[in-house]
Amino acid sequence: MRTIINNATIVNEGREFVGSVVVEDKFISEIIEGGDFTPMANDNVIDATGLYLFPGVIDDHVHFREPGLTHKADIATESRTAAAGGVTSYMEMPNTVPQTTTLELLDEKFRLGAEKSRVNYSFFFGATNDNVDLLPQLDKERVCGVKVFMGSSTGNMLVDRADALHHLFETSPLLIMAHCEDTSIINENIANFKKKYKGQNDFPVRYHSRIRSTEACYASTALAVRMAEETGARLHVAHLSTAKELELFKSGPLEQKRITAEAC
Fold first, then answer.
1. Contact 100, 94 (CB under 8 A)
2. Over the range 48-84, which residues count as b (16 or more CB within 10 Å of their CB) and which as e?
3. By three-state DSSP, how is residue 61 classified?
4. Other CB atoms within 10 A of residue 225 CB
């Protein structure tokens, strides 16, 4: 039996038009432009008049917290939520417990995905100062990319040795997604706030953007972009947070770019 999504406003490949989508054996077999398509008697018809129909969303940056942090969420709960919101594919980050920094732990993530995920999935491999030699062993058809923390965040995945970072950019067969903040600038800002607040470690949240400052973001992103340009690496900078960083990226057709960024 066919399923027909009829008279929807279809948004696809830069266009918007009224039409119908024919689904057979779980696959789209036909997209019919225009509102005059007549289903057959035994079709399962969904009347989408007045509704929009979009392709499934691909979310390239999620944290599903499995393994190790499942009191927050896990692959089953979050992939169900993804499906409910129209996200049909996701790429999950490596800062779980344990962190996804070995081939064995990466395989375990894929096993969990096969067992629990309701939608399509892939997982990032987490780079460290000491595991860069594993990168050529990653399966380009299976693994979505390598996550590198170029600034301090959670866990111990900070790649702060210049030789390791350069080797990563030179040898990664996959897209490199970079978390860019300069740790030395952040530490200097923290030291200054400790002096102001007499040695305490917690400061009012309004100072967050002055500790993880524009300068810290820009310096690290500039380094990542420069290394990508020098090595030809495919770089994607995660969660861009300052207007100044936009100066580092060029406009042009997306399919021609080797260096991209996201804001979230």
1. yes
2. beeeebeeeeeebbbebbbbeeeeeebbbbbbeebee
3. strand
4. 20
**How far is Cα 120 from Cα 114, in angstroms, rounded to an integer?**
9
Q: What angle do CA 74, 77, 79 make, to 5 degrees?
A: 95
- Please tell me the distance from the alpha carbon of residue 32 to that of residue 23, in angstroms, as a whole number: 12
Contact 35, 41 (CB under 8 A): no
The CA distance from 134 to 7, in Å, is 50
Write the CB contacts of 138 (distance below 8 Å, at least 6 apart in sequence): 103, 106, 125, 146, 173, 174
Average pLDDT over residues 234-249: 95
How confident is the model at residue 152, as a pLDDT?
63
Going by their DSSP bridges, the two strands 52-53 and 176-179 should be labelled as unpaired
Predicted local distance difference test score (pLDDT) of residue 196: 81
pLDDT in tens, 159-207: 888 889 999 999 999 999 999 999 899 999 988 888 887 766 777 888 8
Task: State mean pLDDT over 136-161.
Answer: 84
3-class secondary structure, 47: strand
Does residue 112 contact residue 97 with C-beta atoms inside 8 Å? no
Q: What is the DSSP letter of 22?
A: E
Closest to 99 (Cα-Cα) out of 158, 169, 54, 32: 158
Q: How confident is the model at residue 99 (pLDDT cuts 50, 70, 90)?
A: very high
